[in-house]
Amino acid sequence: MGKRKRGANKTGANGSQPTQKRAKTDQSLPNGAETTSLELEKTPFTETLTGEARRREAKVYDLLGSADSDERIAAADALITGLLASSETALERHLDNRLFRGLASSRNASRVGFSLVIAEILNQLFGPKNLAKSKYPGLTFDKVLNILVEKTTPSGHIPGQEERDCYFGRLFGIQCFVESRVLFDEESRWPKILDLLLKMADKKVWMRSHCGWVIVESLPQMGQDRAEETLRKLADIGLGKTAEGIGIWMKARSCYPDLKTPAKPWHDPMNPAVLSEVARVLKDNVAQDNGEDAAITKAKQGGWSAQLHFVWDLILAAFIGQEAGGKQSKDQLKLFWTTVIDDGLFSKNASDAQKFRGFVIFQKFLQGFATENAELARELFTRNLMKCLMNQASKEDRYLHRAALKSLQSMEKAVQASPELLLPILRELLGKHGAYDFDQRTNTKTIENLLQWATPDNAKSVLKLLRDPIVVANDAAGEVEKFRQVYAGYVSKLASQAKPAPEALSSGDKTTNVAELGVKELAACAYSIQPQFKPELSEKSREVFRRLLASTIGKVMRRRADAEYLCNAVISVEPTAVNMSDEIKTEQESALKAMRKLLKASKKSDSKNSGASVGLALLYAITILQLYDGAPDAISILQDLERCSEKMKSKEGGSSELLVEILLSLVSRQSPMMRQISEQVFEAFTSQISPEALELLTEPLLAEENEKGYQALFENLEDEDAEMEDAEGSGSEPEVEDIDEDDISEIGSDVEFVTLNGVEAGADGEDEDEDEDEEDVDEEQAEADAQELADLDDALAKVLKSHRLDKDKDAESSDSDSDMTDSEMMALDEKLVEVFKQRAKKSGKKKEKKDAKESVIMFKHRVIDLIALYVKHEAANPLAFNLLLPLLDVVRTTTAKPLANKAGIAIENFSRAFKKARAANSDVKFDAETQFALMREIHLQAAKDMSHAYGRAASAASLLVASSLFTDKENIDGINALYAKTFAECQKGAIKMQGFFFTDWVNWGMGHAANANAGASGQTQGTA
Q1: CB neighbours of residue 614 within 10 Å
Q2: Cα–Cα distance between 124 and 119 in angstroms, integer?
Q3: What is the three-class DSSP state of 772?
Q4: CA distance 333 to 353
Q5: CA proximity to 512, closest of 525, 522, 498, 528
Q6: Which of 103, 290, 380, 503 qualifies as a FRET site for 421, CA 20 to 30 Å off?
């Protein structure tokens, strides 16, 4: 045992972690017999130690210091029971040699376990049972206290850590006396304990706060008379004017309201008359004081610690305990916070350490008020604190940057815990001591994150709070524009981050929908004249509102209810800020009327037809917004929508084809909103899509990825170019905020396939042939660029009659040093202009080709997104299988790997959706002849390309068709015969195919065989 202890102490000197790990390993050894190991003997302990007694005591004390609470409690129970049944000699031996000495040990949880036993024994000895008088007369209070002092007194020249252990052991021992509640049964006991505490506080300054806390815990037990006497003693020795003294005074006053406190240093630390002195004490600058407490100020001052002093918990508890919402409590907190925190810890002369402490106090008080007394929270946002907070949060290199960010995060947590705090905190951050553009000033997303906690109850108040500062602006024109654009960003975040409204809101509930409120505000500011704005909203600001409206709509479209309130928002807009001709106005009124009818019809129809009506109404709403924006094709789209509605109403054919044409025209635009709306509308109509509409949907996938394909897809090039120029023009305006990650993710494929100069992140590592092809393309491109530069050099050399420096040997010598005349200079200038014109034409044409290719690829991405939605909902529809060949063609022919990957994934998702659909409805039947013809065509197409990705896609498509045929067992032979024929042709060398095309088939067949065998065995057992 001795060697083990020495080893533990040696390890502990280097760090506590190894000791703890080894102890846990030791404890884990008897885990298999944990119940028996905790069944400890509870018989009396012997006065003299024998071998058996030593082993018993060693085991119980080892468990008493365990990090496992169950082991500690079991050991404490056995030890207390055994000791109280033992003789006085045995009990004294354990107190002397084991228990009090163990308090000075830092091994695992020794102090905790030993304190548990000592506190209970002290209670039994000197408490109500008073065993010290009846059973152990030799163990008096003074003798037990002397044992504690003797065993925790450092002697000789010992290391600093051992000295600290001794003092902490004494502190824990005194804490045991307090917890045993025996100090105030006799008058002489408390003064002795208090003297020990004060001596420790005076000798070791780092112990002062711990000693003060023990006194605080003793106050409820001692009664008012002893509390008054204790305070007088503390005041006499000068400890009253310390942080510990303030805490003790406050605790005493809360325990005994009629307490007569000493006149000095103060009757009540929260009294306005002494707050300046309290602020000086809490700021830790008492060392410069020359007042009456000079004796204590000359004592050692404690070093700085990141841990907050216990006095702040007591001050917080005092404010929380006051009457909620009382004016007196608010005024008292405001005066205290301004004097002690704002003018103290955040003053100009405050150190970084003091400001850090101020931030920690702010976080503690904010969290405390958030859960207990939310109305007091707004008093914490004072001038100096806010100035320091914004300054430190704005840049990462600031010393207190992390502390400031943590303070901002504490605001978000407080609002999350108590949503009623949102308005007060927003008012302070955006108000007098904050800044309206708070997020931009601090480079954070604090306001944005706070707005997500807006609720239907406070949404209107939040919007009013955001709107009021920018309605009437007296600042410079630039500031007005800036703040109004910031306001647009806030409203957008308010709407896009709103929590989904309950379903009840869609059925006439008058509760505010936060997202609807935000969308309506954005639309009103974008298209309506707002007379309350002084000055009036500029066209520049309106452009920002329109851009953010489109972005917000793309984010909030989640459910049918969202589509309904979006339509209502468009209906509520009065486009007084939009110049419209009579023709446009007529189309707008007609569209609004049609939209109202569709919304009304959706509430009377079943769920299937209702979704289609809402989808059409949503298309009307988006197109009306495009009409307000001046889109050249908006009127034609509205007319197409009208024809589509009429055909659907009369159940005339061709409505789905017309709808697909409209959706394709919308998804062709690089707008997240258009993409989101188009997908949602298409999803509502998937069950009504005709074969002709599906063919129309897949036609763009066959287009070449070049200028020719671009012209085939986008016939009206002039209008398209005009729209692109308008988009570029609007994009050149200064942005209010950076593009969100969400916006980037929504654009998605618009971005990722633009640069194909190497291996994409999502590509398979096995596509070595494709990688080599791309490397060859890059090399060819580099060679072409180099040749282009060489041609430019040659053209310039001919005009200038010069040469490059590396061609001196090949150049002819020139002896003419005469200067050029003015006419020669003009002629030379014209030749140079012509050379660069020709180069610009070549570069412009090259860019046009690149843009055309990217536009075609982007459009194909959008089409595949629609196809993915169709196969998700209509996997069991025979028409869906017509999409397999176009998807395979995309995988084989496209030069953009992300597009090929998306097409392959669409086939895989189709297969998964078909399995689910077949499991839900096992009666699904397909025309065998049509499916076999499709499978044969897939096999023929599979042989056209040996790339790995294409082979996988073809295999998945073929097995998907086979699965559709497998519903009829008679088709099994035909499936296997078709695969066998393809395999035979591959063996003969007639075609080339990947080997996994056939191993996938074998695995698929064996899987079905296993299922069939399992079903047969189940039927046999059921019959038996």
Answers
A1: 26
A2: 9
A3: helix
A4: 23
A5: 498
A6: 503
DSSP 364-420: HHHHHHHHH-GGGGGGG--HHHHHHHHHHHH-TTSTTHHHHHHHHHHHHHHHHH-GG
What is the pTM assigned to this prediction? 0.74
Structure tokens at 650: 């009369």
**Dihedral sign (CA 807, 813, 817, 821):** negative
For residues 389 and 405, give the distance between their C-alpha atoms in angstroms, rounded to a whole number. 8
Residue 661 Cα to chain centre, angstroms:
39
Q: At 15, list the tokens.
A: 């760090």
- Cα-Cα-Cα-Cα dihedral sign, residues 866, 869, 874, 877: positive
Residues 574 and 625 sit within 8 Å (Cβ to Cβ):
no
Average pLDDT taken over every residue of the chain: 80
Residues 6 or more apart whose Cβ sits within 8 Å of residue 1001: 955, 958, 959, 962, 979
111: nearest Cα among 41, 172, 33: 172
| Token pair in block for residue 115 | 């304190």
- The arithmetic mean of pLDDT across residues 945-969, rounded, is 90
The candidate with the shortest Cα–Cα distance to 243, out of 201, 272, 203, is 201
Token pair, residue 60, equals 């119980």
Report how far apart, in Å, the C-alpha atoms of 205 and of each of 22, 164, 282, 293, 298 are. Answer: 34, 12, 16, 16, 12
* Identity of the residue numbered 949: A
- For the purposes of burial, counting CB atoms within 10 Å of the CB of 792, is it exposed (0-12), middle (13-18) or buried (19 or more)? middle
Residue 384 burial by Cβ neighbours in a 10 Å radius (0-12, 13-18, 19+): buried
pLDDT at 527: 92
Say yes or no to pLDDT of 674 above 90: no
What number is the average pLDDT over the span 485-490?
94
> Which of 107, 114, 91 shows the shortest CA–CA distance to 172?
114
Q: Coil, strand or helix: which one is 900?
A: helix
pLDDT, tens only, 857-895: 999 999 999 999 999 999 999 999 999 999 999 999 998
Strand partners, 472: 534
Bridge partners (DSSP) listed for residue 534: 472
In whole angstroms, give the CA distance from residue 576 to residue 536. Answer: 13
User: pLDDT, tens digit, for every residue of 338-371?
Assistant: 999 999 999 998 999 999 999 999 999 999 998 8
Amino acid identity for residue 433 in this structure: H
d(C-alpha 972, C-alpha 582), whole Å: 66
Residue spans of alpha helices (H) in 801-927: 822-873, 884-893, 897-920
Q: How far from chain centre, in Å, is Cα 477?
A: 36
Query: 598 near 614, Cβ under 8 Å?
Result: yes
Place of tokens 């907050």: 308
Secondary structure in 3-state letters for 518-562: HHHHHHHHHHCCCCCCECCCCHHHHHHHHHHHHHHHHHHCCCHHH
Distance CA 655, CA 636 (A): 16
CB 162 within 8 A of CB 154: yes
Calculated CA dihedral for residues 716, 719, 720, 725, nearest 10 degrees: 160
Asked if 736 and 488 count as a contact pair (C-beta separation under 8 A), the reply is yes
Contacts of 681 (CB under 8 A, 6+ apart): 615, 616, 618, 619, 659, 663
Task: Using alpha carbons, list the distances in angstroms from residue 910 to 197, 869, 904, 907.
Answer: 77, 10, 10, 5
Alpha helix ranges (H) inside 33-68: 34-37, 51-64
Q: How many CA atoms lie within 13 A of 43 on its CB side?
A: 6
Q: Which of 604, 598, 605, 601 is nearest to 623 (CA)?
A: 598
Q: Two tokens at 738?
A: 């950076």
pLDDT tens per residue, range 792-851: 666 666 666 565 555 555 555 444 445 667 676 777 677 677 766 766 666 656 777 888
CA distance 978 to 594: 53
User: Residue 993: helix, strand or coil by DSSP?
Assistant: coil
d(CA 868, CA 960): 15
Task: Return the HEC string of 488-525.
Answer: HHHHHHHHHCCCCCCHHHHCCCCCCCHHHHHHHHHHHH
